[in-house]
């Protein structure tokens, strides 16, 4: 039961930790506001309108962008949010494209945050007495000061009139000189209004990296009323550019909540009680850890002070490496010794007396009864064939008398060969019979030369086959000779 209560206390404390961190976090909360934003693709609906926005003048919405003014003279176009913005602090990021074929362009494009939604007018497509903030991207140098294209920040309280001939210098609070026309990528402006500080960054569109923003202006003590309207407008004069808006992204900025008394929903006494229980649990855990160390000293990790330093570790690694190399060399030395012993034994065995080698002859080198019968049958067949060949030659009586001596010589040769084969057969049979006799010891082979090993049955087979080949060759020679004689006569 006590363990269950302890687990419940730990769970409660773990739940309090993230809650306290969230309340003390110093980062502001950022939230996307889709009703005050637009971005392609599918920027417009089926009716050709922008959801939550209204447009007018020469503005032409499409699926990917909004063309505020085409490259035609004396055109004005605008888009405004239908709903006011309910948050006090905000951040917008606008991507625009200003393109034209001439070296100079006109007039420019502006971003607005005003108390009321604007209508078409002379100040870049809006009324020239607005109340709120205006960010102007002015392309044409009306005041002949040589400072255009220029991005400027202007504030108006609704009573001052924007002087177009002076490029609104009376209302200008800051800005930067940037050529935003004919960039390879859309030019992006990031405007942040947070705790009465207005900051403007510009991305000149020379790269596709989203972080390549440059600081253009930072203004403090700017008072903008809550619940304003966002808008975009553009205008052309004697010179004309295409003014396109690719996207308009809005986020609300909420400051972090300050820690308030009783925010956790627990009284001070309950908090103290939980803290005390947590400390007691920590002490109990530490006591159990010490008891475990005492009961299992071999499993206790050594303290940090007993660990080796970098120098000791390097020395240990070098020592271990040398030991490994020494062990490897010792193993190789032992293997070389074993090979040397085997080579010496083999050399002694080869150079020993031939009589000692006779004991090495294995049982596999003797012939069995089946091999002897096969050899005798082969010899009998050869003898019969030789008799047939001799009879055939003796019956050839049509040969000339001058060849009679040759035929008689052939018969004499055949008789000699037959006698030799019969003698050889008798010798083989005698030796095979002696090897197959039981109870008698095998005798050693005659020492070399000419035969360094025992005479086996293969030797006699080779001898008989060679004699037969010689005899057949001689008979073929005599047949050819006889045929030539018949043809001649």
Automatic annotation (TrEMBL):
<keyword id="KW-0732">Signal</keyword>
<feature type="signal peptide">
    <location>
        <begin position="1"/>
        <end position="22"/>
    </location>
</feature>
<feature type="domain" description="L-type lectin-like">
    <location>
        <begin position="30"/>
        <end position="253"/>
    </location>
</feature>
<protein>
    <recommendedName>
        <fullName>L-type lectin-like domain-containing protein</fullName>
    </recommendedName>
</protein>
<keyword id="KW-0812">Transmembrane</keyword>
<dbReference type="InterPro" id="IPR051136">
    <property type="entry name" value="Intracellular_Lectin-GPT"/>
</dbReference>
<keyword id="KW-0472">Membrane</keyword>
<dbReference type="InterPro" id="IPR005052">
    <property type="entry name" value="Lectin_leg"/>
</dbReference>
<dbReference type="InterPro" id="IPR013320">
    <property type="entry name" value="ConA-like_dom_sf"/>
</dbReference>
<keyword id="KW-1133">Transmembrane helix</keyword>
<feature type="transmembrane region" description="Helical">
    <location>
        <begin position="458"/>
        <end position="477"/>
    </location>
</feature>
<dbReference type="Pfam" id="PF03388">
    <property type="entry name" value="Lectin_leg-like"/>
</dbReference>
<feature type="compositionally biased region" description="Basic and acidic residues">
    <location>
        <begin position="256"/>
        <end position="273"/>
    </location>
</feature>
<feature type="region of interest" description="Disordered">
    <location>
        <begin position="253"/>
        <end position="275"/>
    </location>
</feature>
């Amino acid at each position: 039961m006590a363990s269950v209560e302890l687990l419940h206390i730990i769970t409660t404390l773990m739940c309090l930790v993230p809650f306290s961190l969230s309340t003390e976090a110093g980062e502001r909360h950022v939230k996307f506001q889709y009703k005050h934003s637009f971005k392609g693709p599918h920027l417009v609906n089926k009716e050709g309108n922008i959801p939550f926005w209204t447009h007018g003048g020469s503005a032409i919405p499409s699926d990917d962008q909004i063309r505020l003014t085409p490259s035609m003279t004396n055109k004005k176009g605008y888009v405004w949010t239908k709903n006011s913005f309910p948050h006090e602090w905000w951040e917008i990021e606008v991507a625009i494209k200003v393109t034209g074929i001439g070296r100079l362009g006109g007039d420019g494009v502006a971003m607005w945050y005003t108390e009321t939604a604007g209508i078409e007018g002379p100040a870049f497509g809006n009324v020239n007495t607005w109340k709120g903030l205006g960010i102007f991207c002015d392309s044409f140098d009306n005041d002949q000061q040589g400072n255009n294209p220029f991005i400027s920040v202007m504030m108006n309280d609704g009573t001052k009139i924007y002087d177009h001939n002076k490029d609104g210098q009376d209302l200008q609070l800051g800005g930067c000189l940037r050529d935003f026309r004919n960039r390879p990528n859309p030019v992006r402006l990031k405007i942040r209004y947070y705790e009465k500080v207005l900051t403007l960054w510009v991305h000149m569109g020379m790269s596709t990296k989203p972080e390549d923003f440059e600081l253009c202006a930072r203004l403090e003590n700017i008072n903008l009323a809550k619940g304003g309207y966002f808008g975009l407008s553009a205008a052309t004069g004697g010179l004309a550019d295409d003014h396109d808006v690719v996207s308009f992204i809005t986020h609300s900025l909420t400051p972090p909540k300050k820690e308030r008394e009783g925010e956790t929903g627990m009284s001070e006494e309950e908090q103290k009680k939980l803290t005390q229980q947590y400390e007691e649990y920590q002490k109990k855990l530490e006591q159990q850890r010490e008891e475990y160390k005492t009961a299992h000293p071999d499993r206790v990790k050594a303290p940090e002070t007993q660990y080796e330093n970098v120098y000791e570790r390097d020395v240990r690694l070098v020592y271990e490496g040398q030991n490994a190399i020494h062990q490897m060399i010792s193993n190789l030395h032992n293997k070389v010794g074993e090979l040397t012993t085997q080579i010496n034994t083999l050399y002694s065995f080869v150079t020993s007396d031939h009589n000692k080698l006779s004991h090495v002859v294995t049982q596999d080198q003797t012939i069995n009864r089946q091999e002897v019968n096969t050899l005798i049958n082969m010899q009998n067949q050869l003898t019969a064939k030789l008799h047939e060949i001799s009879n055939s030659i003796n019956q050839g009586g049509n040969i000339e008398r001058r060849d009679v001596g040759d035929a008689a010589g052939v018969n004499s040769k055949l008789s000699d060969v037959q006698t030799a084969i019969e003698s050889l057969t008798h010798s083989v049979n005698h030796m095979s019979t002696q090897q197959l006799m039981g109870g008698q010891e095998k005798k050693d082979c005659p020492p070399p030369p000419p035969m360094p090993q025992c005479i086996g049955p293969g030797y006699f087979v080779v001898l008989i086959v060679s004699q037969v080949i010689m005899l057949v060759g001689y008979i073929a020679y005599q047949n050819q000779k006889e045929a030539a004689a018949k043809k001649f006569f």
